[in-house]
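Attaching the record inline, Q. Sequence:
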Amino acid sequence: MKRVLIAVDYHPTSEKVAETGYNLAKKLGAEVCLLHSIAETRYYGMEYPSFLGYEGYTLAVNDHLNTEIENIAKDFLNKAASHLNNDVKTHLAKGETASSILNYAKEWRADLIVMGTHSHSTLEKLLMGTEATKVLEKTQIPVFMVPVKK
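Structure, as predicted:
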């Protein structure tokens, strides 16, 4: 194992995921990269059609908001890297989370992907699945899952 990719999000449990993945990578003498994926920024806005005769409820995502979202994500990654003594690379991906993780893992030639298992309700898992499940279903790279449920 030479490269360990650690996927983190804005959930506080990411600290446990990052630290566990980092410690594992150091024991293996592997290089580490923290990855955060931003969903398409159009999801951060509301674009509703007119309803009940009202046409004023549209908030389109503009370039300023896109830039702000990216800046927040970059700051998050930089602080996470600093928490790990700046001994890691970082990568900010855009798009659907599972695809972003898999695509960058392949591009970076990761030997291992580290992810957390958020606690979702059974109904939510049945209806939407989880990003971890999506990665596990499609990966060709080993995945180390960090349980974060209390």
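The beta strands are 3-7, 31-38, 46-47, 58-59, 89-94, 112-117, 143-147. The two ends are 29 Å apart (CA to CA).

More tomorrow.
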